[in-house]
Structure formats: C-alpha cells, structure tokens
Amino acid sequence: MIFARLLAATTQHNFSKRKTQNPRYRPLRSNRENNMSIQEYIEEHGLGKKVEDVINAAVKAKAPEPIAFMAEYLKKQSPATITKVVARQIFDSRGNPTVEADVYTHKGMFRAMTPSGASTGIHEAVELRDGDVTK
Fold it and tell me: What's the distance, CA 106 to chain centroid?
C-alpha cells in the first residue's frame, strides 16, 4: 500500500522542471521528445513489480541496512554480464599444458581450468596440439 502511494506520487511529479545542469539528474525521457511518460516507462520495464519485490524482501528479512540489502538483492536479480576474460596457459599435475581462464562480471571474478585427459565423450572438447615444444 505504501509502495502504491509512493509510485503514484512519483509519477505525478513533473521531473522535467528541474533546473540542474548535471546530466545524471535529468529526466530519462522528455515527454516532448518521444511522448513516453514516466508511468509508461515504469510499466514497460516492469519496475513497479521489481521495486515492490525488493522492498518486501527487505522488510521480510528485517534488514538493519535496508538500502544495502536492496542494492545486493537487485544485483543478484540482474544477469551477470561478462566484462573481461583473461586466459593463460598452465601445466596440470602431470606436466601437460592446459588452459585456465578468469572471467570477470559485475558480480565478481570466476576462474576455471580445462583438464587435460584421455576422456573423449561426445560432449568433450577435442585437444589440439601444435607440436611447439617451447610452450
């Protein structure tokens, strides 16, 4: 109920009258530019439901720091977009060269290596060696 009142008050406020020069605080879309109201934007992206869910989760968890809780909750709800990949050649326990990769997302860094083995199942990677003894 509180969320519905907050949402209604937010959508009725005229954000286009702000007199700030900081582009961060300008309205997302001007009604004159493309005829999309704030309410239409909220509905198009399902923001009402998402905000309601995060507020309910914070209340249910009785979070001592609700803003930090809500930020973490929303971060977990978003997909992990890969921002960087770093790969390197390493040697496994038998001295065979293999590949290790670090995958970076906004959620953290994740590392994996490919084992070098004799398994040749239909879904296994095929090992290709170039014969270069200096590697």
Answer: 6
